[in-house]
Amino acid sequence: MKQKLLTDIELDVHELKYLMDSFTKEPTPTLSELLKRSITRMQGRLEELQQEVDAVQVISPSAVEETAEEEDEVAGSEEDSPVIIQSLESVVVKEDEEGEAIVAEEKPVVIAAAAETAAAAEEEEETKYVFMGTTVTQEFKKRYNAKVLNAHYTFEKYIQYEDIQNTLEALDIDREKFWYLLLFVSDYIYGSCLEGIKVKETSRVLVEKLMQQLGKNIGNSGCILSFIKPMTLTLKLQEKHRSIEIDDPISLAYIYLVYEAGKDYFSNDKPTRFDTQGIDRKGKDTEYKTILVAMFYKLLKSFFKLLPKTNTSKSAKAYSTVSLNKTLLISRLVYLTNLSKDKRYTGVDEKNSKLCPNFIKDQIKSYKDYEILRANKFYK
Fold first, then answer.
1. CA dihedral defined by 311, 314, 317, 318, rounded to 10 degrees?
2. Phi/psi of residue 89, each to 5°?
3. What span, in angstroms and rounded, lies between the C-alpha atoms of 168 and 324?
4. In 1-60, which residue ranges form alpha helices assigned H by DSSP?
5. Integer CA distances (angstroms), 220 to 105, 210, 216, in order
6. Among 191, 172, 143, 167, which Cα is nearest to 333's?
7. Residue 332 to residue 224: CA distance in whole angstroms
8. In a 3-state reduction of DSSP, which class is residue 368?
9. End-to-end CA distance of the chain, in Å?
10. Residue of 319, 320, 347 lying closest to 333 (CA atoms)
11. 199 DSSP 8-state letter
C-alpha cells in the first residue's frame, strides 16, 4: 500500500480534530461546511485504502510466522516517525477561451507538522468523534458543474479588483479557494432569501420567547411580585369571539415558574413534535435586498473568525497602503457580487467626497438580530 495514502488519512484525522474543536466552540455555517468537506474527502481516501487492501494478495499463515519478527522491528522503528498535517485540497483554477473559470485539478497543500512525540500520539488515540454526513458539498459541486449557481459576477472581475486581491494577499488567504467560498455563499443566500420557502418558528422557540419576556419583566418588591413594566397576556378564542386576558403579576409569575420547573422534562437532543416548522403561507415571497447583504456579511464574518490572527505589527486601519479591514473587504465584495449597485459599498462616498469604510454596518444594523425563517431551496 502507498505510504502517502496512509499519511494523508492520518493528516485528515488531525485536521478533523482541529475543525471539530473549533465547531464545538462556535458552530458557524462556514465552519460546518469546512468540516463536512473534510469528512467527505477523508471518506474518499478510506474507500481508496479499502480498494488497495482488497487488491493485495493474502499470504499464507506460515509466511506470516516467518516475517513476524521482521515486522516487529520495523514497527518499532516507525513509532517515532513525525506526522505531517495536510490542509483542505487546493483547487487550481484556469480560464477557458471565453474567460470562464474552470476547475483544472486538485493539489494537496501541507500546512503544519503534527504529533512529534509518542505522548501526543497516545492522547490523539484516546479522543474519538462521531461525524454525520451531508449533501451540501455534493450539491454545490453539481450546481457548479451544471453552471446554475446564482453568482452574477465573473472570475475575471474578481481577480481584477485590486483592492480585494491586495487585502486577501495581506490576510494570507488563497484567492482561488476564496473564490469558491464566494460562489457558495452567493448561491446559498440566494437559495434562502429569494427562493427559500417561508416557514414558521417552532413551538418550542415561540414558547421560549414568551417565557423570556415574562421572566425579564417580573420583579420582586420585598415579598410582593410586580411588573417592571405593565404587561398583559391575551388569549383570543375565535370561535366564541372573546378573549382571556391576564395582567396580574402573580398569575403570570405562576405561569413562568411552572414553565421553568417543567422545561427540562421536554429537553431532548433529538428533534420532537415541538421542533417542527410549518409553512408560513402569510409570509412575504422574498426577503429585502438588505437582508441578503446582512446574511452575506454574517456568513463571511464567521469565516474570517476561523483565520489565524494577522501580524499585529500591521495596521488593520482602512485605507492604508493595503487594508486589513475585513469589514471593508466584505463591503467591497457586496459591490463586486452585485448584491448592491451602491458605490458606497466600495468604501468611498463620491457624492460627498468622503470615505465610508463602515457603510455596510450602517446599512445592516437594523437587521442585527433578524432571523431568516426560510428553508433553503438548494441546500438541505
1. -90
2. -65, 135
3. 8
4. 3-25, 29-55
5. 67, 20, 12
6. 167
7. 56
8. coil
9. 37
10. 347
11. B
* 334 CB-side CA count, 13 A: 34
Angle at 32 between CA 18 and CA 307, to 5 degrees: 55
Structural element, H or E, at residue 236? strand 233-237
Q: Where are the alpha helices (DSSP H) in 147-202?
A: 155-160, 162-170, 175-193
Residue in this structure with the C-alpha cell 438548494, named with its chain if needed: 378
What confidence score (pLDDT) does residue 127 get? 40
pTM recorded for the entire structure = 0.53
Residues, the chain, total? 380
> How many angstroms separate the CA atoms of 209 and 198, rounded?
20
Pick from 153, 154, 152, 150: which is nearest to 194 by CA? Answer: 150
Provide the 3-class DSSP secondary structure of residue 198. Answer: strand
Residue with cell 474507500: 47
C-alpha cell at 261: 420547573
Amino acid letter, 45: R
- Report the C-alpha dihedral over residues 46, 48, 52, 53, rounded to 10 degrees: 30
In one-letter notation, the amino acid at residue 117 is T
Local mean pLDDT, 10-residue blocks, the chain (380 residues): 71 75 77 79 84 73 50 46 38 40 37 37 40 74 93 94 94 94 95 85 86 84 72 84 85 87 72 72 79 95 84 53 90 96 94 92 89 85
> Alpha helices of 218-368 — where are they, by DSSP H?
249-262, 289-304, 326-336, 359-364
